Amino acid sequence: MAISAIGVGSGLPLDELLSDLRASENIALQQIKTRQADVQNRISAYGKIKSAFEAFQKAGQTLSKEGTFGAYKANTSAESFSATAETSAVSGQYNITVESLANTQTLVAQGLASRTDANGTDGVITFTLGDGSTKTLDLTGKDTSIDGIIEAINADDSLGVQATVLNDGSATPYRLMLSSTETGTDAAITQIDITGNTDGAGSPLADLLNFGTAGSTLQEQAASNAEITVNGITITSQTNSIEDAIEGVKLNLTEANPGKIETLSITRDDSTAKSAIETFVKAYNALQGTIKSLTSYNTETQTANTLTGDSMARRIQNEAREIVNSFSSSGDVRTLSQMGITTNLTSGELTIDQEKLTAALENNLGDVQNLLTGGNGIATRLEQSAENILDANGLIAAATNGAKSISERLQEQFETTSARIDARMANYKQQFSALDGMIAEMNSLSSYLTQQMGMLENLSSGNKK
Question: Are 79 and 128 in the same domain?
Fold first, then answer.
């Protein structure tokens, strides 16, 4: 609050006195601000612990994901195919030859002079496919020209057919071309039937799309199935993606190399599991490091940190330790230390013996998986603990909400105290102004009396002469 200059009349340093009083009163406000800053730092610290525990939880969830343990890797330098392996694969080596690729079917109609002239009116086209299924296109009341047929076919994805037009440059250049959208003989058209189409004399559509019966008018490039041999066994497929030839292995055929044998080896791949375990250890160490830094006490300077002595932080720290110290009741690997993960007694961090971890994954994968992700495994216990810690009504939320409530009360206290100080300072100013005026009047009166006394003294001296 601004203070106008007073004390001019009295000559007293009343402005300085008011400033000193304001500074003294503001000590209470500064104390409230300090407490507010402490509370905000506490809220921020809770947020840091929450983020660190969320990262710890996520690392545990990664351990539990399907495919983390028991993964397999497909190794090949083949030019004809690529391969991927799932957890259901079995280690082994395979000699593979890609004899032929699966291809789509194309049908090309005889040429017409116009692509926009109607081919009779109405009509229902029925496509019979190699797998015995039928697809129907109803052109009743619709455009039956080449362009109209193309538009109708391409608008219906369920047909499994795409259409376009070729121009061969002849007197009747426009040739309708139909192509199956999927490879293999099952998706190929084996017959086309036309009903309900007429131009008064016959069925132009039936003449245009006669296929699968005597006198076919469509030129065909036939569909074909993929054919490969695996260790001398012939396998055919409707597509160039083969998932059931080798257990747990997907083959993607890229080119045919008849007679050329190419090798595929399937081996165990523990790199995914190892990476997930390393990430888990890093997340645990980061959580412990965060809590340690926020709760530490400097004995040399005798200064506390933001959460020194905070019970919630200590509880989370202890819960995390208990989780990683869990053990299995059976197997050769029952604890983290038996798979090469130990606790540094000085720092409290987990450290990994890479050779021991590799050996545990290679020789005791089931035990490792049970310890980490079993029904009472480390990742399972972590997820249960996370619910209590991270939920909307969990430990961190309760502590944060409590701190926010304190912050709100402190703000109310600050505003109340500030208003009280302003009122008090206004009263001081009013009193000082009155004092200033009174002293100014007294000074003026004193000067007048002094002047009068001087005049009387001069008169008295003159009379004596």
Answer: no
Instruction: Check residues 117 and 461 and name the one with the higher pLDDT.
Output: 117
Asked whether residue 389 carries a pLDDT value surpassing 50, the answer given is yes
Angle at the Cα of 320 from the Cα atoms of 318 and 326, rounded to 5 degrees: 105
> What's the confidence (pLDDT) of residue 28?
84
The CA distance from 396 to 391, in Å, is 8
Last residue of a domain, one of 213, 237, 269: 269
In this predicted structure, what is the pLDDT of residue 213? 85
Residues 97 and 123 in one domain: no
> What tokens does 20 get?
């000193």
Instruction: Say what the alpha-carbon torsion angle 154, 156, 158, 162 is, to the nearest 10 degrees.
Output: -10
Question: How far is it, in rounded angstroms, from Cα 32 to Cα 39?
Answer: 11
C-alpha distance across the termini of the chain, in Å: 63
Q: Confidence band (pLDDT; 50, 70, 90) for 12?
A: low
For the ranges 7-11, 109-113, 294-298, which has the lowest average pLDDT? 7-11
Residue 248 has pLDDT above 60, yes or no: yes
Shared-domain flag, residues 195 and 116: yes
- Between the alpha carbon of residue 71 and those of residues 21, 46, 276, 371, the distances in Å are 76, 38, 12, 18
Report yes or no: 334 and 327 within 8 Å, Cβ to Cβ.
Answer: yes
Residue 370 lies in a domain: no
Domain containing residue 265: 72-102+225-269
Query: What DSSP character marks residue 157?
Result: G
Q: Residue 47 falls within a domain, yes or no?
A: no
Please answer whether residues 135 and 124 qualify as being in contact, where contact means their C-beta atoms are separated by less than 8 angstroms: no
Number of domains within the chain: 2
- Both 159 and 237 in one domain: the answer is no
The token pair at 295 is 């709760």
Given a cut of 60, whether residue 9 has pLDDT beyond it is no
296 within a domain of the structure (yes/no): no
Residues 178 and 98 in one domain: no
Residue 199 sits in the same domain as residue 242 = no
Q: Provide the strand spans (E) within 54-207.
A: 72-76, 81-85, 92-100, 106-108, 124-129, 134-138, 161-167, 174-180, 189-195
